[in-house]
Amino acid sequence: MAKTQLNVRVDETTAEAARQRALQRGMSVNRYIEELVKQDAGEVGRTFVEAASDFMKQYESVFAEEFGEFGAGDGSGKSAGKDKDTGTGRAGKR
């Protein structure tokens, strides 16, 4: 993968902390900072998944009422369900 050079200005305390942490990990400061950015970028993905999971937990009963209970029955993860107004199965409804 091609590399791009970035120039970053930080105070001396931060620079020294980066140098020490990189040394402790046996890597260059460049590699250390690259790893920190990758970890931070990955955190965004984890945060999204956690938020989506919380949303689904919060609205699980609403989804179950609208679409039926998932994971029960034939193992397909789908439920035919019945239309709450007509009592007919969803398959015939289009």
Summarize the helix and strand pattern as letters: HHH
**Rg over C-alpha atoms, rounded to the nearest angstrom:** 25 Å
Tell me about the biggest sheet?
none
Work out the strand percent. under 5%
Q: How far do the termini sit from each other?
A: 49 Å
The tally of beta strands, per DSSP, is 0
Q: DSSP helix count?
A: 3
- Provide mean pLDDT, rounded: 79
Low-confidence residue ranges: 73-81
Structural class: mainly alpha
Shape from CA axes? elongated
Helix content: 55-70%
Structure description:
The chain contains three helices and no strands. The two termini are 49 Å apart. Residues 73-81 have low confidence and may be disordered. The protein has helices spanning 12-25, 29-58, 60-67. It is mostly helical and 94 residues long.
In a nutshell, what does this entry contain?
With 94 residues, this protein is mainly α.
Topology:
Elements (H helix, E strand, L loop, with lengths): L11 H14 L3 H30 L1 H8 L27
Helix pairs in contact: 1-2
Structural features:
mainly alpha
